[in-house]
Amino acid sequence: MFAKDLVKHAREFAGYLKNRQYEQTPAGVVFPQAHAFAHGMYSHRVNGGEWVHDPNLLPSEGLTYLLSLLGAGTKLTPWYIAPYAGAISPGANWTAATFPATASEITSGTEGYTNATRPTWTAGTAAADTINNNSSPVTFTIITATTLLMNGVGMVSESAKGATTGKLLSATRFGAQRSFATGDLFDVKYAVSLTST
Question: What is the largest distance, in Å, between two alpha-carbon atoms of the chain?
């Protein structure tokens, strides 16, 4: 029901974004006039341990991209998860162009992770107003001579480490900084939802 309403009122949502008629909250983005809520959640674990959950921020670039799909926008696929080291919380003005420098994206293959590119986020089928990669978590193989510190991750549309093109869909700062040793396996899941309020 809500998805049909969103398609029907796509121009209105675009107007809400353009006119800043929305509220960024720690849990997601509220569109008061539309009674709608866009939110996402990252889940992460180390070496098969317990999952830790952190809400994300959907920046303006990500929200605009999602709404463009209801019009003539081009679908971008696949998406990639990019880790960052900066002790900084995502901002609504973050973009794919600014993410690597602003967040201090981890790009090294010797003091970072062994994956040649940003790992691919592979989504399942959307259901119940949500889409996620729960059945196929992203995995980073950590490499470091001492300790690698990570403060968050983002979801971007370009695979190259440090790329400044494409779109930034979302980002999160972990509730607590992660510390890794070489050989650690770091798994990441992401779910995004659009629901009525």
Answer: 54
Report pLDDT digits (tens) over 166-190: 999 999 999 999 999 999 999 999 9
Examine residue 55 and say whether the peptide bond preceding it is cis (omega within 30 degrees of 0).
no
**Parallel, antiparallel or unpaired: strands 148-156 and 52-55:** unpaired
**177 close to 106: Cβ distance less than 8 angstroms:** no
For tokens 């990669």, what's the residue?
133
Greater confidence (30 vs 81) lies with: 81
CA angle 86, 87, 92 (to 5 degrees): 85
Classified as helix, coil or strand, 102 is helix
What phi, psi does 196 have (nearest 5°)?
-80, 150
- Whether the CB-CB separation of 82 and 120 falls below 8 Å is answered with no
Q: Where are the domains of the chain?
A: 2-196
How far, in Å, are 22, 70, 80, 111, 141 from residue 184 at the CA level?
40, 40, 20, 13, 6
Nearest alpha carbon to residue 154 among 45, 74, 42, 44: 42
pTM > 0.70: yes
